[in-house]
Amino acid sequence: MTHEIAVIPGDGIGQAVTPAAVEVLQAIDTADFEFVRGSAGDAVKAETGEALPQETRSIAADADATLFGAAGETAADVILPLRDVVGSFANVRPARSYPGLDAVQPDTDIVFIRENTEGVYSGIESEISEGVTTLTRVVTEAASREIAEFGFGYAKQNGYDDVTIAHKANVMRETDGVFLEAASAVGDERGAAYDTALMDALAMHLVMRPEEYDVIICPNLAGDVLSDLAAGLVGGLGLLPSANIGEENALFEPVHGSAPDIAGEGVANPSAMILSAAMLLDHLGYDEEGDRVRAAVESVLASGPKTPDLGGDAGTDAVTAAIVDEL
Ligand code: ATP
Ligand code: MG
After folding, report:
1. Sign of the CA dihedral 205, 210, 214, 220?
2. Helix (H), strand (E) counts: the chain
3. How far is the CA of 175 from the centre of ligand 1 (A)?
4. How far apart are CA 136 and CA 118, in angstroms?
5. Active-site residue 228, yes or no?
6. Whose CA is nearest to atom 4 of ligand 1?
7. In what side-by-side order are the strands of the sheet with 163-167?
8. Which of 106, 175, 231, 244 lies in the 20 to 30 Å Cα band around 97?
9. How many whole angstroms separate alpha carbon 157 and alpha carbon 150?
10. Is 162 marked active-site?
């Protein structure tokens, strides 16, 4: 069976790391992919006036999954509609430390399951009078249940024992109250073990004792902030993949952006993007292949060439070649 993969490199280092991930997928001999390229981001906006051309939307909508690199200034105009195109409700952000790398917390293996459709990112903002602004925070029982079902299912499927529900229901009683109640109900119905945690205290615990956490189910903003915090614990943006999962479609992208400071220099770390491709393999049912890619990345991180962000002097191509070799 051939899977159609939309490939949208975008801007900056997206142009370098996305082909690296495609190279890795091509090296998997037990799966067959057809790659369809789409353009998005600053460069295409400068050319056509549109950051996300209709043709790219269609390519992503029709594909079995999408690989997205990064967009620069136009990031919000590209990634928010793209997440809509694939109907994504769950943002999956694993943060783990790797042997052989310097990390603030070398014993971290946490997966953030972030609600991706509502909360304070509902987009309902207004200036009600000069200098006075409001934001409407939308939290529904349906979306809270959906993300919790996904999070508990993810934990079970991936062999994680501990689930934590992050919230701030002591202050945001209505909105986070619904989130906490709905997510807890899902845990109870499943007979799953779980804890609940106030998100501010959780931030402190994550810095001090990340090894105590496995899967953390979060409202939108909390998931965004806490997963970036965890990125800092494990060694930086060049290592963190993510998945945006929808009912029928999904999009995979590194957590980092277009990194204009190093774009075009050939030194971007391809690991985050290649690990995102590993998540794509999992999603399409190629679990073993996903594990093989992760093992190859891990082995190169431990003893292969490293890009400058990890203290080495190798380029994107050399690291990618080492990972493909390892496969
Ligand atoms: P954007 O607006 O597109 O997010 P940015 O300036 O915020 O761009 P990021 O891509 O978020 O840049 O990166 C932040 C910092 O991390 C930059 O200094 C960048 O060089 C570094 N960085 C990010 N990704 C990588 C990577 N894959 N390899 C090496 N360094 C990276
Ligand atoms: Mg950034």
Report:
1. positive
2. 11, 12
3. 33
4. 10
5. yes
6. 257
7. 32-37, 2-10, 65-70, 250-254, 241-246, 88-96, 109-115, 215-218, 163-167, 194-198
8. 244
9. 10
10. no
Length of the chain as a residue count: 327
Residue 163 in contact with residue 152, Cβ under 8 Å?
A: yes
Hey, how many other C-beta atoms are within 10 angstroms of the C-beta on 2?
9
pLDDT score of 90 more than 90:
yes
Residue 154 is a catalytic residue? no
The Cα 107–Cα 234 span in angstroms is: 8
Alpha carbon distance 231, 282 (integer Å): 22
CA distance 34 to 11: 22
pLDDT recorded at residue 120:
87
Half-sphere exposure of 221 (CA within 13 A, CB side): 14
- Confirm whether 224 is a catalytic residue: yes
Identify the active-site residue in 45, 64, 168, 176: 168
Percent of the chain with pLDDT over 90: 92
Which residue, by CA, sits nearest to atom 17 of ligand 1?
A: 259
Angstrom distance (rounded) from CA 166 to CA 199:
5
- Ligand closest to Cα of 20 equals 1
The two tokens of residue 192 are 């799953």
Q: What is the mean pLDDT of residues 251-257?
A: 95
Return phi, psi of residue 175, to 5°. -70, -55
| Residue 6 to residue 61: CA distance in whole angstroms | 9
Q: How far apart are CA 153 and CA 274, in angstroms?
A: 24
The CA distances from residue 223 to 73, 93, 133, 297, in Å, are: 23, 9, 24, 25
- The single-letter code of the amino acid at 287 is D
Q: Return the axis-axis angle of helices 287-303 and 316-326, rounded to nearest 10°.
A: 130
Integer Cα distance of 36 and 57 in angstroms = 12
- pLDDT (mean) for 81-97: 93
CA-13 nearest atom, ligand 1 = 27
